[in-house]
Design a protein that fits this description.
An eight-stranded parallel β-sheet has the order 4-5-6-7-10-11-12-13. Strands 1-2-3 form a three-stranded antiparallel β-sheet, with no helix packed on it. It starts with 7 loop residues before the first strand and ends in a 37-residue tail after the last helix. With 353 residues, it is α/β, with parallel strands linked by helices. It is globular and about 55 Å long. The protein has a single domain, classed as TIM Barrel (Alpha-Beta Barrel). It contains ten helices and 13 strands. Helices cover 31% and strands 12% of the residues. It comes from Thrips palmi. Belongs to the aldo/keto reductase family. GO terms for molecular function: oxidoreductase activity. Keywords: NADP, Oxidoreductase, Signal.
Length: 353
């Protein structure tokens, strides 16, 4: 039974004759901010080529996507803005049809940085507001660290991160109408609870790594209890992301697992569709990344079948807990595991068996 706090608005219609789902077919998750968020969105990390982005977004919009996830550090907000502006100006979309998420970067983790980085994002996206503004990670680096906000060195970490001051600045942006809802990414329960206890505006969304082998069951239960929607990044396992995945944690190819393939064959669906359906049936939002038009269309075409209890039990049992986590960000930001707000206590002092 889905938690009423996540209130999955079932507007699901069977997709006939293999046609892509309409935007109205896509299930939405109610947010504690009063709005709702499409349960399937397009992730755009690692898509920074203009032609590739234009092709991907056009395919996604044609396929029924209205939820798009980006971030300052993806360096593609301006490309997304260009395509959305074209669709809006041609009358193919209304702004209220869209749900756009972007994120405060780790080098903007000071209260005074919040309006600066959000205004930059809005200018690049060519929007007056975003539907969700997330704190990208709970730790911060120095404002001038790295090169264009990435490629950090051993002296990049800023240990003075103050979540409550940053959140207060985020709330001010919401009150000003530049962000309709606020959330966090990669935060742990303690960090989320600190915000809940000290602000009249709780996070509306938590975005975290979540997939078959890292199902985040305790964290999801905590969020449901506190009426916080959960978004899964890397919902099909994100192969090919070694730049930020710990070098000893090889991303598994979840699509080739025998159990997943068998369930896919049973329902005449792809393994990716099974993995995404497994997550969304729990009321969790997914943002699979792809720039391939065929896979983009397949990834949203998951509303005409339901995994039965046996399927769900099989897939639930494949969770590896923290052993399945891929994104520790220690490769990305040297020394970040020693930041006082590094969220994964189990990985502070190495070793991995």
């Amino acid at each position: 039974m889905l938690s009423p706090s996540l209130c999955v608005a079932l507007a699901v219609l069977a997709v006939a004759n293999g046609a892509p789902p309409k935007a109205s077919d896509v299930t939405k998750v109610a947010l504690n901010s009063g709005s709702s968020m499409p349960i399937v969105g397009l992730g755009t990390w690692q898509v920074a080529d203009e032609r590739e982005m234009e092709k991907a977004l056009d395919a996604a919009l044609e396929a029924g996507y209205r939820h798009f996830d980006t971030a300052t550090v993806y360096f593609n907000e301006h490309l997304i803005g260009k395509v959305l502006k074209r669709w809006l100006s041609e009358g193919k979309l209304k702004r209220e049809d869209l749900f756009i998420t972007t994120k405060l970067p780790v080098n903007g983790m000071r209260a005074s940085d919040v309006p600066y980085f959000l205004n930059q994002s809005l200018a690049k996206l060519q929007l007056d507001y975003v539907d969700m503004y997330l704190i990208h990670a709970p730790f911060g680096v120095k404002r001038d660290a790295g090169h264009n906000g990435v490629h950090f060195d051993d002296n990049s970490v800023d240990p003075t991160t103050d979540h409550l001051a940053i959140w207060k600045a985020m709330v001010a942006e919401k009150e000003a109408g530049r962000a309709k809802a606020l959330g966090v990414s990669n935060f742990n329960e303690t960090q989320i609870e600190r915000i809940i206890k000290n602000s009249p505006v709780p996070p509306a969304n938590l975005q975290v790594e979540l997939h078959l082998q890292h199902q985040q069951k305790p964290l999801v239960a905590f969020c449901k209890k506190n009426n916080i929607a959960v978004t899964a990044y890397s919902p099909i396992g994100s192969p090919g992301t070694q730049a930020v995945v710990d070098s000893r944690r090889v991303p598994p190819n979840l699509l080739n697992l025998p159990q997943v393939k068998a369930i896919a064959q049973k329902h005449n669906k792809t393994p990716a569709q099974v993995l995404l359906r497994h997550i969304t049936q729990k009321g969790i939002i997914v943002i699979p990344k792809s720039s391939n038009p065929k896979r983009i269309s397949e990834n949203i075409d998951i509303f005409d079948f339901t995994l039965d209890d046996e399927d769900v039990a099989t897939l639930d049992a494949m969770d590896r807990g923290i052993d399945g986590q891929l994104f520790l960000l220690k490769n990305f930001i040297p020394g970040v595991e020693f930041h006082p707000e590094y969220p994964w206590e189990a990985f502070r002092i190495e070793p991995i068996a």
